[in-house]
Structures are given as C-alpha cells and as structure tokens.
Design brief:
heterotetramer, A alpha/beta (506), B mainly alpha (311), C alpha/beta (360), A: 506 residues, alpha/beta, 6-stranded mixed β-sheet, 17 helices, 33% helix, globular, disordered C terminus, C: 360 residues, 6-stranded parallel β-sheet, 13 helices, binds adenosine-5'-triphosphate, binds magnesium ion
C-alpha cells in the first residue's frame, strides 16, 4: 500500500481549471519528482496534499486512511510537511523562531522553551552546514538564506511525507549538495519525498520516479532510466522546439555599455571593477552571500553607501537613486520577485507599466496614463515570453512562480535598457521557458544591450554568457576564460573559494 | 484583512456597496416622513460636503499606505486662519489662497516627517492633530472670529449656481480633480504602486518618498479647503469646528472600499462612503431617533453594509 | 431634632429653599447691551381653549442639545417634553453635539430639513452658529433658546425668547460659599470649560472671580480648563499636585466637579468643592458632604418655561425676550427638598440613605 | 513604514524611548513646581492606569495586524453595566465578573466579524464604537448611575495596599498577565507570527482566525476592566467617561514601539508609552499651561520623541 494516494483530484480557480482528475501516489522511502511548465499546477496539487487548498473533487489517503482535512494544521499533524515555493516564514521572527514556527517546544502553561529552541536550531544548522546565524531576523535575509531556513523548518518536523517545492531555486552548489545529503538520509529512514524542481540535473540525480503535470493531467510516472531531459522537455513543451543559443562573442568595440570602477559598499563590496561591452552577456558566478545581489543593487542605485564610479555608455550614473539609474538606461531584474519585483495584489499590465510610466503617456504630452498602451505592452511580452496568464488585469499574486518571474523580466525588457542586470532571472522557470529566456538574453544582447547575468546555475552561465566573472565574498577575484563548461566553472569556483582566506559568509 | 484581492471580486464588491447604498436610501425614502424630496437631497449633499472633500484627499494618503489623523484640526485651524486674514483686511481671494497654501504646507510637513524621519504616519499626524487643535484654540485664546465679508461666505457655502448650492459645486470640483489625479494621471499609478508594494515600487525607479509627500499635500489642502467651507458655513472661524472629523472621513474612505493597508481604492467609493454615512445619520434623525439611539443603529448598519459587500 | 422630611423641616433648610431673587437684567441678550429685563416664567399662562387650539395644531418640536452628558440637559429635555405633551406637541428627536459646534450645526441642518414647528436649542458657540440658526428661522421654524443666544439675532423676530438662570450670580454664590467654608482665607482653584465662547459657562468664571476678590485672604492658584467633563480628573490632579496648599476648588458644573472630588480622593487630599447644578447623581456628592455647597439652576422648570414660551409663540402671542428661572442654594441641610424641586421627582433612595437623616 | 527591523535597531530604539522618557521626566522634575515627589509619581500612575490597562489589551490586537477602536465606548458601557448590576442588588464580585465576561464577549464578536466576514477591523470596531457609545447613553437615557456600595469602589480604585493605590495594583496585574501571554507563552508566538505574515503563519499550521479572535477578546476584557475602574473612580457609571480613550490608547501602544502594521510590539513599551503621554500632560498642567497650549506642546513632544528614536 502506498504512503500517499491522491485519487481523481480536480481543482479550479474561478474559470481557470488547473487540475482535472489527477492521480498521484508516493511510496515510502522514494523521491517522486514532479515536473511541468510554469503554471501547470504542481504547487497547487501539492498545496492540496498539504491542506492549503481543498480539492473540488477527489480523495487523499495516507497509509490508506482518508485525510482530507480542513487546514494545514491537520495535515501537519498527519505527518505531512512542505517546503513552500513562496516560503512560509514570518519576517519578524529570527531564524530559530521560524524553524520552530507553529510547533515551539514548550513546558507548563504553554511556556515557550526558548533555550531548547535555540539549542535544537543550532544543532540543525550545524548538522546540515547551512550558513545561517540563529539570531538574525528573516526579514533581513536575502532569499537564498530564507530558502535554507525554509528547508530546515520542514525537515526538522520529522514528517513522514515531505514535499519540496523548488527548494533550490536560488541556492548554489554548496547548499544543493547539502540538500542532496538530507534527501538521501530521509529516504533511508523511509520518508516519502515529493520533489518539484526545474533543474533537470537535480531531478535526474535524486528522483526514483518522475511525473509530469500538463494541461491539468498527470503524465507518468516513469523511471529516470527510461527517460531523458530531451524526452521530458519534449513532453512538457507547447510544441516550441527548444531554442539553440546563438553563442559566440557578440561584444561590440567602442565604449562599453557598462563600466564599473572601484565600486565598494560599507556593507559588502570591495573595489570592484569590470566592464560589459554592448552586445555582450557577462556572467557573474559566486556562492550565496558572495555579494552578487549586493553588487546588482549597488549598480542600480539601491544602496546609499555606494562608492566608486558606474558609467553607462561612458556617462556616469549618480549613486543612490534607482530613478536616475533607470533613466541612465540601467535595468534590474531582482532576485526576490515577490518582495522586490511585483506589486502582488495588482494587475499584470499595471506591474509591467511601473518602470515605463513615462513611455505610457497618452499621446506623449500630458501626464495621462494610457491603459490601452499598457495592455498592449503586456500583450506583446505575454506572447514573447509565453506568460501563462488570464489577461492584463489578473493579479500578479495569482500567477505561478515561474510566470511571475517572466512578468518581472518583461517589465524591464520593456524599458529597452542599455544595460540589463539579471539577478537569478530563470530561478523557478521551467526548462523550455528557461531556454526561451536564455535565447531572449542573447537576442537582447545581440540588439546591442550589455547584459550582466547573475546566476546560481553554473550550467546557465556556461551556456549563456560570453565571459564569466567569479565573485568571492564581495570581490571579483577572477575571470573564467570563454567557452568554459559547467564542470570547469564548478571546479574553478571551488578552488577560488578554497584559496580565499576569509570565511565565505560573513 | 483583505485576502480576497482579485480584481473581479473587487468590482463586485464595489457594485454591492452601491446596491446596499441604494437600498438604504430607498428604505428611508419610503418610511421617513418627507425624506424623498429635492430639498432633502440638497441638504444631505451639503451636510456631507465637508467629509467628502477631506475624504478625497485622505484617499490618496490611505492608498499610499499611510494615514492622516490631522485633517480635523487642520480644518479648524484653516477656518481660524482664513477668518483672521480677512479680519486683518486681506482681499478674500488672497486669504483663501494663503490658507490653502498653508494647508498644503502642513501636509508637506507631515509627509516629510513620515518619509524622512521614518515615523509612523499614525503618530506624526496624531501629534499634528494635537498641535493644530491646540493652535486653533490659542491663536485667539478660544474665541471665534466672525467673517463679516459675505462674498466669500457665499462663494464657499451660502451661495448657489443653477439652483445647486456652492458646497455641492466644490465637492464636484474636488471629485473631478481627485478622479483625474488618481485614475487618469501617472501620479495615480505611482500612489497605487507605492501603497501596493513600496519596495517593488522603488525597485521600479519610483520615488516612494516624493509620492507619499504629495499624497499628504493633497490631504492637507483638502482639509484646508474643507476648513474654509466650515468657516463660511458658520460665517466665522471656530477653533473646534473640525474636531473629530478624521474618524468620519477615514470611515467614509474605508466604506468606499479603499484598503486601510494601501494599494487599492477609488475616489468615487470614498465620496459614496461619505454620502452613505450622511444618509444614515440624516434618515435616522428624520425618522425621529435621538442621537444616542441613532449611534447604535448607525454603527450596526455600517457593519452590516460592509459585511455584506465583503462576502 | 425631631424634624422629618418632607412634612417638617428645620427653618434653616426652609430659609435656604427660598430662591435667590430675580436679577432685573440677568442674561446677555442681543439688542440689550446691559442685559434684558428678566421676566418670571409665571407670566406664561394658558386658557383651556388656547390649549385646545394648540392640540388642534398638531405641532412638532425638535431639541438640539450641546451635550447630554450631565443631569442638567436631561432634566431640561424632560421639562420640555412633559410640558409639550400637555399641549399635544410631539418631540420628534433630541440631538447631542458632544460640545462640538460643527456637529451641532449639522444636527441643526438635519433638524431644519425635518421641518418641526419649533426647535429648542442651546448654542455651543453663539458666534459661529448664528448663521445656521438664522436658516432655521428663515425656514419659518420658531426658535426657543436655552441659556445662550446666537449673535445678532433679534428676540421676537429671529427667535422667540431665551430662558436661563443668572449663571454669574449662581457661580458667585457657590464661590462665596467656598470662601466662607475656608474661613475667608486660603488657596483656591477654578475648573471650568476651555471654550470662552460658551458664555453661560464663561460668566461663571466671572462670578467666581468676583466672589474670591471679596476675600483678601483668598488666593487663586489657577484656573484649570477642560474640553470635556472627564478631563477634570487629570486637570484637578495636576492642580492639586502643583499647589499642595489648595483647600478649595470651584468647578463650573457638577459633572466635572465629581471628577475633582475623585481626584482629591485618590490624592488623599481633603478639600472643599462647590459647584453649580445638581441632579440625582451629583446630589449624592452633596449628601456625602463632598460638595460643600451648590448654586443650582432648576433645569426642569427651565424646560417647562421654554415649552410654555414655545406654545405661546405658536399661538402668535408675545413672549418676553428673557425668562429667568431663579436659582437655588443647595447644601446638605436642604438637599432633599432642593433635589425634589430641581428634578420634580422624589429623591432616590440612595441619596436619602447617604444623607443619614441629616438632609431635609 | 518600518523599514528598519533588526532586533539590534529595535533594542536601541526602545532604549532611546526610555532615555527620552527619562529626559522629559527629569526636565519636569526640575522646572515644574512640586513635580519631583512620591505623590506625583503615584498621581501619574493613577491618571495613566486606565490607558495603560486598555493599551495592554490593544497591544495584542495591533500586533496581530488589526485594530480595536471600540475600547473607549466599551469602557463607558461596561461602567454603566457594572453600576446597573450593582444597583439591581447583585453582589459586587458577581457584577464585576459578569461585566468582565461581557467585555470579553464583545471582543469575541469583534474578532468573529473581522475574521469570518473579512470586514476590516477598522470598520467593525468603528461601528462597535458607535453602537456601544449609543448603548451606554440609551440604557439609562443618558443618566449616570451611582455606585453607592463602597467596597468595589475601593477595590477597583479608591483603596490602597502597602501604600500603593488600587489602580496601580491593577495595572501591575494586567502588565504581568500581558507580559506572560505575549512574551512567555505560546499564544504570544502565535500573535507575533500572525501579525508578521498571516499566510506564512497559516502555512505553518497556526489558526490565524482563532489567534486574532483571542486578541480581540483580550482587548475587550481590558476595556471592560478599565471601564469598571473608571466607574469606581467617579463612584458612578457615566455614559461618556470612556469617550475618545481609543486614540490615547493607540498612541500609547505605537509610541511604545508596536508596529501599526502588526508583527512587532512589547507590553512594557505600551505601558511606558501610556505613562509617557501621562507625564507630558501632567507636567505641562502642573507647569500651568492652559489645555490649548498644552496640546500644542504635547503634540510636538510626541513627534520629537518618536522622531529621535527612529533615527
Ligand atoms: N490562489 C490562486 N488564485 C487563483 N489562481 C491561482 C492561485 N494559485 C495558483 N493559481 C493558478 O493556478 C495555476 C497553477 O499554479 P501553480 O502555482 O500550481 O503552478 P506551478 O506548476 O507551481 O508553476 P511554477 O512551476 O511556476 O511554480 C496557475 O495558472 C496559477 O495562475
Ligand atoms: N551596504 C549595504 N547596504 C544595504 N544593504 C546591503 C548592503 N550590502 C548588502 N546589503 C543587502 O544584504 C543582502 C545580503 O547580502 P549578502 O552579503 O548575502 O550578499 P548577496 O548579494 O545577497 O549574496 P548573493 O546574491 O551572491 O547570494 C543583499 O541582498 C543586499 O540587499
Ligand atoms: Mg509552483
Ligand atoms: Mg543573491
């Protein structure tokens, strides 16, 4: 008898039928991978298993017992836990608070046992070797670190069923490795794991069975051995042939699109200098906490304490004001789409129009906002990026993670920037869309835009970037020679880290 | 709070507001003696003009994710200042402009304190409430200042044009202005974005602080205008004419469907909210309920009305 | 000491029960720079057929109050309502502006739209509300004022008449009693309303000051101002703290006076408190000896007088511009008699109990 | 609003609050006549007892991301109810317990309306404010109800134990209770989580609605207790004694460092906030400023104090 059996699950949001009559099973001690395009319904299916949503139809059994509960709480008590794609952490709590959120150790009279909490949390962090400090508040942590906390939180529950919804979307090799360790350990102790990811390498590394969500149906399950990345992306795709990247050094001579000299911030960065030529894609590799996002923010004028020079097309960009940066032709796709990228409660057209307001004036002159222009703009990118959405008025919050990411991408492409800074642009984006977006980056570059690509997926850097810079703890220490492949990058990054005296994470 | 945020639901919600609003009105029209009359409509619009005008300014502040509790006392203070300026012999147009400017300035100060010093607007404007209600009492040592010059009294309140009273015209003017700023102009987009997600807004190159400051300037100016109208209504500036208005105003805005947490709201909603409150109070009095009983029913109706339209 | 209330009360109590004489020119009334001639309510009488005429008129009345948070306004409303009932005049609504002139103007506008035959009202701010009241008379509604008259409105033309007591004299009495209770020397304080435009209270300050001046030994330590009665607690507390030697406080009316007593009690200070007006609740304070003396208006009788002048006006008869209801001197000794004549009801049991047989 | 959220900054912030608080106190102690005395301290604690008690209840509601505007009128109403119950001859302990239970029930109703019907708490409790201020006036037709039985007056207000006055003891009791609930017990963690991010909290198996309802129950009960204390203070239930308390209370809570948007706050902060406001008002009165001037300075000090401690 299976650990989990979901039978005939159907779910719609309003008119939008997401799942129709889906069956899904999970065996003890197995990793069942779940793939599918952005918006296919993976998270929804798992949120139903977690008790977040009630299915419109269907049954769920755990060890053969009906467990359709009304709340997450009931399902947690049943021994089901989940790493949420959008995380389940409270910003005002410390790392320790969050790891034990909802199940704090307590004594008489519901007295919270803080000491035990800290001890236990410390042990976990130690055990899995994540770079976290107990007392820091979640609200202050960048997404990657928060994702680590989310992992610990779920793992520490000691559940029998563990759902992992894109746990590594913004993690780098260290944490990825750590997670693989955790998974192996859990498997051996007979826990069933559902693993959702868009990183094919991971999928094939960990999973025992692979299923696909497509058009509300479940395809599979199949064994990794019996299939291949190509086969799967073939199954997933909407017929879009996976794009071949027009690589090859497109860098144009003359004044670089972006030039950085002696850039430093009090917090993190030290004396950073590099340049991105027009038409070139420059990759930035590093470990979590190495300062890549900090650099991106500093370039975009989001950090007041920036020192040094930033020139776009040879013209200096004043520090400390994103508005100036945007005017100068800089664009930033931030790493944390929910917090930094989107106004979740508002429509997609509204979101895309934000950095483009001045372009969307009615008939140029008066500061009148033209809705139709905004909708047109959205429509354009909806097709260009294959954004899976109902329409320009749909609230961003209702989009699937990957599609949200595309919207953020679109909103900055629309500004037709001179320099495009991408911080983990394809995190949580499905394989095909990923290929499309990488092609898009190349195309954007080909149009003479300088692209700075921050990515935790070395494979992405290897395939997409012309040059790759290595960032270690706030310094750009080295440049990888062109045409280097993933394995090479990984090796190089490893020995860079090893050779840097200072600890990787401050 | 506002979990249901899909635009669809929002549209429905607003519609329901209007439906309930109509229902209550019709109810009164049927049961309340000589309620259904042109005079009544005029009276209600006059009575709610003050709240409507301020509510429109407040809408911007609340959408931007802040709040302005100072409007009531700023209104009182503005009335006093206008009266004093005219008393000092200034031409009334000049006095009005100066008072309006002062209101805008007070708003700007609120905005600066909130954005630059990062003090919660609730505290800043609560402090200002105290400051200006005190100031209004102090300038003349609690004594009201008559406005003898009738020109301005007529323009602001007592006069009428095409049989429609001045205060109604002013409300209309402010509504149009507010509608343009919020729903038509780029500024409106910025306010909505800032209220929806300030971080994302600034990541999109929107100047969050400036946007909020302007929102406060609008509510300060609206309060000043309302204060002048109050003064004109009673042909004198009285230091406590506007006292307590802030609660009515915020209630109107929220009933109108604006989210207290910012990011969503409409001008029309706020005005309808104001008129709705006005109608309830008026209808209940006409039906012969005394203030105390009125309050009970009024409170109940407000809760009911909104509860229905949140479903 | 075999006196017993009500049948046989001590002469001293009897003496107190004789009201203070009418002041020829009491209240400020527009058009009467040095006070309008005071008329007694007794001049208003009705023949049976006049009453029938009133009943046939199917008149209605609205009452627009400044506050309902005290005994005084309630007794006024009772006096008006009960008397009007006798004339077959129905009270459509009573509004409470909570001391906010803006609110009162709105209340008034709503009341005007309700079109009663007559509106009884006590303007909070005679200056800034006069325009609104003018609308009422313009709308053909008869206006009868309590205590305050809005500026530049003419009696008999813009409004019917005003009924009041001589507040200045009433306060003068209470303050004088305070001074006497302290043997004519010591430090005192005043707690009164912050708004001087509310003149029927403002003049009480004048009266109290006049009284204190007559005693060279009395030193006024300060005048605490309140925007609402409950503020009197903290105002009095701080006044008593700032001036440890204060032995007496005059509060402008009974509700704040109660808070003054509470403040003194919590500070463990023994002081004398005198004030104006009593009602069943404040009567307890007299019974317990916490108010040493009270100069009390007779709000019920004032209400009666107002109702009568309204009725007279509805009959198109002439009403004197200013009707004065003389005030009472209230001490523990004559509390029961005074309370009954103020409220027109037998004193509540708890008051009688608190008196422990010492009141008549 | 609250961009700076690190614990470090918060600690500093709170410290600064206390520093400023001390500074102002010392200032008054020096310049204000007979301010620096034991009596004064007692007096201030008594004056602020009411606000402190309610503020502690309110802290839970605000941390949970909601607001309760009804506390003032619930206090008035509770005072009336207590007085009426005793007048009806109930033993005072029973009357007190029943009144407290009623307060809790009102809170529960607020919470249910907010969570089940998804009405913004601002509106629900604004409606309730209106309902209960009206009800307080109506039950006795605006007449105050004396509490002759002195036992309860002493227990709740006039008495004292070890030379410390009853109201101070009650404040202390409520502080301890509140401290335990918020900072020691599981419930506190829940409230903080719900206020920090309701969705995340529910994803973590926390019952968001129940948590909020309990928060409202606490503030309702606190308001009822405060109302009984008010009544005992003036040995009578008076229908408008609690009017307007809500603003003072919320101000105290926010000055105490609680975020109006929920997720962070402390019991001690709220109490200190209440006492701080009390000291300012008291000090200024003792220095002989009239109410009007006092308001100006008070407002300014509040803004200044907070502005400094946000830097
Ligand atoms: N709360 C919601 N309300 C309305 N629609 C929703 C909601 N949550 C998800 N959807 C819709 O359901 C569909 C599936 O969403 P889901 O998050 O399950 O996709 P996914 O497979 O997890 O995609 P991704 O890989 O990008 O995370 C999407 O079209 C999304 O717009
Ligand atoms: N000087 C600064 N001022 C303000 N915020 C800063 C500063 N330096 C860093 N930060 C913020 O701290 C966050 C965490 O920085 P961290 O040291 O983890 O590097 P990172 O850029 O997030 O690492 P990576 O993106 O390579 O994983 C950054 O995202 C940035 O927003
Ligand atoms: Mg998903
Ligand atoms: Mg990063």
């Amino acid at each position: 008898m299976s650990l989990i059996e979901m039978r005939g699950i159907s779910k719609s949001f309003g008119q939008n039928r997401v799942l129709s009559d889906v069956d899904f099973t999970l065996e003890p001690g197995e990793v069942h991978a779940l793939l599918g395009e952005n918006g296919a319904g993976k998270s929804t299916l798992m949120k139903i298993l977690m008790g977040v949503y009630q299915p419109d139809a269907g049954t769920i059994t755990l060890d053969g017992e009906e467990i359709i509960g009304r709340s997450v709480g009931e399902h947690l008590n049943q021994g089901i836990a989940m790493i949420f794609q959008e995380l389940s952490l409270v910003p005002n709590g410390t790392v320790a608070d969050n790891i034990f959120l909802g199940r704090e150790p307590h004594g008489l009279g519901w007295r919270v046992d803080r000491r035990a909490m800290r001890r236990e949390a410390a042990r976990l962090i130690e055990l899995y070797g994540f770079a976290l400090s107990l007392k820091t508040e979640i609200g202050r942590l960048p997404f990657a670190q928060r994702q680590m906390v989310e992992i610990l939180k779920a793992v520490a529950r000691g559940a029998r069923v563990l759902i992992m919804d894109e746990p590594t979307s913004s993690l780098t090799m260290h944490e990825e490795a750590a997670l693989m360790g955790i998974i192996a350990e859990l498997k051996s102790s007979g826990i069933g794991i559902v693993y959702i990811s868009h990183r094919m390498a991971e999928i094939f590394a960990v999973s025992d069975r692979i299923s696909l969500v497509k058009d509300g149906q479940l395809i599979g399950p199949m064994r990794p051995a019996e299939t291949s990345v190509a086969h799967i992306s073939g199954l997933m795709s909407r017929g879009v042939a996976t794009v071949e990247l027009a690589r090859g050094n497109a860098a144009r001579p003359g004044t670089p699109a972006l030039e950085v000299r002696g850039l430093s911030t009090a917090g993190k960065l030290r004396d950073i200098g590099f340049s991105v030529a027009a038409g070139e894609v420059v990759g930035l590799a590093g470990l979590v906490g190495s300062g890549r996002s900090t650099l991106a923010k500093a370039l975009f004028g989001l950090l007041p304490d920036r020192a040094g020079e930033v020139l776009v097309d040879g013209r200096a960009v004043p520090p400390g004001d994103p508005a100036d940066a945007a005017k100068a032709g800089l664009a930033l796709v931030p790493e944390d789409r929910r917090r930094e990228g989107l106004v979740l409660d508002q429509g997609l057209a509204a979101n895309i129009s934000l950095p483009n307001l001045d372009r969307l004036r009615l008939g140029g002159g008066w500061p009148i906002f033209s809705r139709s222009a905004a909708d047109a703009l959205f429509g354009k990118f909806r097709t260009a990026l294959a954004i899976n959405a109902r329409g320009p008025r749909q609230a961003a919050a209702e989009l699937s993670g990957g599609n949200q990411q595309k919207v953020v991408f679109a909103k900055w492409l629309a500004t037709s920037p001179r320099v495009l800074i991408l911080d983990e642009p394809t995190s949580g984006v499905d394989v095909n869309a990923k290929a499309e977006m990488r092609a898009l980056m190349r195309r954007t570059a080909a149009e003479g835009v300088g692209v700075l690509l921050i990515s935790s997926e070395l494979e992405e850097l290897a395939t997409t970037a012309d040059r790759v810079l290595l960032m270690i703890d706030g310094r750009i220490t080295r440049e990888a020679e062109p045409g280097l492949h993933e394995a090479g990058l990984r090796a190089m990054l490893q020995d860079e880290v090893a050779s840097s005296k200072r600890p990787v994470i401050a | 709070m506002n979990t249901q945020n899909s635009l669809a639901l929002r549209l429905l919600r607003d519609h329901v507001t209007y439906v309930i609003f109509l229902a209550v009105t019709i109810f009164f029209a049927v049961v309340a003696p000589n309620f259904a009359s042109f005079a009544t409509a005029g009276a209600i619009l006059r009575i709610t003009a003050i709240v409507s005008v301020i509510a429109i300014g407040m809408t911007f502040v609340i959408i931007s994710g802040e709040i302005d509790l100072s409007v009531g006392s700023v209104a009182s203070f503005s009335g006093m200042i206008l009266a004093l300026l005219l008393d000092a012999g200034l031409p009334s147009w000049l006095g009005a402009i100066l008072t309006l400017a002062m209101g805008a300035a007070i708003g700007a100060v609120n905005g600066l304190l909130v954005t630059r010093l990062k003090i919660p607007s609730f505290l800043v404007t609560l402090g200002m409430l105290s400051v200006f209600s005190g100031a209004a009492l102090t300038v003349t040592n609690t004594m009201p200042v008559p406005i003898v010059e009738n020109g301005i009294n007529n323009v602001l309140w007592n006069g009428s044009l095409f049989t429609i009273a001045a205060p109604v015209w002013w409300t209309l003017l402010v509504v149009l202005l507010g509608y343009y700023l919020l729903h038509v102009s780029l500024f409106g987009r910025r306010v909505l974005a800032v209220g929806g997600n300030a971080v994302a807004a600034s990541f999109s190159g929107i100047n969050v602080n400036r946007t909020k400051i302007w929102a406060f300037v609008l509510s300060g100016s609206a309060a000043a205008l309302a204060g002048m109208m109050l003064a004109a209504r009673s042909t004198a500036g009285n230091p406590s004419l506007g006292a307590g208005l802030e609660l009515d105003v915020i209630a109107a805005v929220i009933i109108g469907g604006t989210s207290l947490f910012g990011g969503y709201g409409t001008i029309l909603g706020s005005v309808i909210g104001a008129i709705f409150i006005g109608i309830i109070g008026f209808g209940l009095l006409v039906m012969g309920f005394s203030t105390s009983v009125q309050e009970i029913i009024k409170g109940a109706i407000i809760i009911l009305a909104v509860s229905v339209n949140r479903r | 000491d075999n006196y017993s209330w009500p049948d046989n009360i001590p002469p001293a109590a009897k003496e107190l029960m004789t009201p203070l004489p009418l002041t020829p020119t009491g209240q400020i009334v527009p058009g009467y720079p040095n006070g309008a001639p005071a008329a007694s309510p007794d001049v208003l009488t009705f023949t049976p057929d006049q009453i029938d005429k009133l009943k046939a008129g199917h008149f209605t009345a609205g009452i627009v109050m400044h506050t309902m948070a005290a005994g005084w306004p309630l007794l006024q409303v009772q006096g008006i309502t009960q008397t009007l009932k006798g004339f077959g005049i129905k009270v459509v609504a009573v509004t409470d502006a909570k001391f906010n002139p803006g609110t009162q103007i709105s209340d008034l506008e709503e009341m005007i739209a309700r079109k009663p035959s007559v509106i009884f009202s006590i303007p909070i701010d005679p200056k800034s509300e006069s325009a609104a009241y003018k609308q009422a008379s313009a709308a053909g509604i008869k206006l009868v004022f309590l205590d305050n008259v809005p500026v530049n409105m003419a009696p008999g033309k813009d409004y019917v008449s005003v009924t009041a007591s001589d507040n200045e004299k009433n306060a003068y009495y209470a303050a004088k009693e305070l001074a006497e209770s302290m043997g004519g020397k010591g430090e005192v304080g005043i707690v009164t309303l912050v708004y001087d435009y509310y003149y029927s209270v403002a003049v009480r300050k004048v009266g109290a000051l006049r009284a204190f001046k007559e005693y060279p030994g009395i030193k006024l330590d300060g005048i605490g101002t309140i925007a609402s009665p409950d503020a009197a607690y903290s105002v009095a507390t701080s006044m008593l703290t700032a001036h440890p030697k204060i032995q007496g406080i005059f509060a402008a009316w009974d509700t704040p006076a109660e808070q003054v007593v509470a403040a003194a009690k919590t500070l463990g200070r023994k002081i004398n408190v005198t004030t104006n007006d009593i009602a069943p609740d404040s009567a307890l304070f007299v019974a317990r000896g916490e108010f040493y003396a009270v100069g009390s208006q007779r709000p019920f009788d004032q209400g009666v007088a107002e109702a009568k002048s309204a009725a007279t006006a509805l009959l198109d008869e002439k009403v004197p511009p200013y009707i004065e209801v003389p005030t009472l001197r209230v001490k523990k000794l004559n509390l029961l008699s005074a309370l009954q004549s103020v409220t027109h009801q037998p004193p509540p049991q708890n008051v009688i109990a608190a008196c422990a047989g010492q009141c008549f």
